[in-house]
Design a protein that fits this description.
The chain is an alpha/beta fold and 265 residues long. The protein has a single domain (13-18, 64-264), classed as Putative cyclase (Glucose Oxidase, domain 1). Helices cover 19% and strands 22% of the residues. The strands form four sheets. The chain has a nine-stranded mixed β-sheet. A two-stranded antiparallel ribbon has the order 2-3. It has a two-stranded antiparallel sheet with strand order 5-6. Helix 5 runs parallel beside helix 6.
């Protein structure tokens, strides 16, 4: 068996996650990230002049770069597969049938469709939507084909506004992203997950505040969504195909988990 150094020799690894820190941007629907060094060096001393430090942090599963579980959205109080939320959720057990701990590590082919690059712009405007036409054009631009079980990564360029809280999460004035037709384009190709560099994969504000892309992907099709993915390294390197590794934390009953996606090329 080859050692890891040999396996990775000549490969590039792109880190697609954002840092978690006190004061970082957060969606208005979720609590801010909190951090405190509850034990500083010098608070307690061991033998031979040794000390240690320990932190405490708090966050929702939807903080920073994260993977949405299937329990995140319901339609008419039914989860994916028609499971009623009644009896399937509790404050302490979470969403029992679809806790994020049930999601296996994702190690799949990743395909990045760089929408702004295919249009010759730096980033999409706040009211731009991404549908089948834009996805087809970006696939031709990158010379890639989206196949079953792929992880589809859709770049809008919106992450370049990070970490400006007001601009990045401007859900009132608009955030570019997939429309429902674009989401159906992806699900018809039987992708396993859709990720984007914006805060919700779909464009915001959502029509009637109903989040149709979330409902279609999570509730109807059972396809995970990954949000706040930093796709700038792939765009800069003009990388449109990779081996993508995404490992959610085993948080029992959680509706999402922070992740650190790695793209191997």
């Amino acid at each position: 068996m080859q050692d890891l150094t040999t396996v990775l020799q000549g490969r590039r690894v792109f880190d697609l996650g954002v840092e978690l820190y006190h004061g970082m941007p957060h969606h208005q629907f979720h609590a801010p990230f909190s951090f405190q060094l509850i034990r500083e060096h010098g608070d307690m001393m061991f033998g031979d002049g040794v000390s240690s430090a320990v932190e405490l942090f708090g966050m929702t599963g939807h903080t920073g770069t994260h993977l949405d579980g299937l329990g995140h959205f319901a339609k008419d109080l039914c989860l994916h597969g028609g499971i009623s939320v009644h009896g399937a959720q509790s404050k302490t057990a979470g969403i029992v049938p679809y806790g994020i701990e049930r999601v296996a590590p994702i190690i799949r082919r990743g395909v990045c469709l760089d929408i702004p690059a295919s249009l010759g712009v730096e980033t999409l405007g706040p009211t731009q939507t991404i549908g089948p036409h834009e996805l087809d054009a970006a696939a031709r631009f990158g010379g890639v084909e989206v196949r079953p079980r792929d992880v589809l990564l859709v770049r809008t360029g919106w992450i370049t506004l990070w970490p400006d809280q007001r601009k990045y999460y401007s859900v009132q004035t608009g955030v570019p992203g997939l429309n429902l037709e674009g989401a159906r384009w992806a699900t018809e190709r039987e992708v396993s997950c859709i990720g984007s560099d914006n805060c919700g994969v779909e464009y915001l504000p959502a029509p009637n505040h109903g989040y149709p892309v979330h409902v279609h992907c999570l509730t109807e099709k059972g396809i995970h969504l990954m949000e706040v993915v930093n796709l700038e390294p792939l765009s800069t390197a003009r990388v449109y195909e990779c081996l993508l590794v995404v490992v959610p934390l085993k948080i029992r009953g959680a509706t999402a988990s922070p992740v650190r996606p790695l793209a191997l090329v």
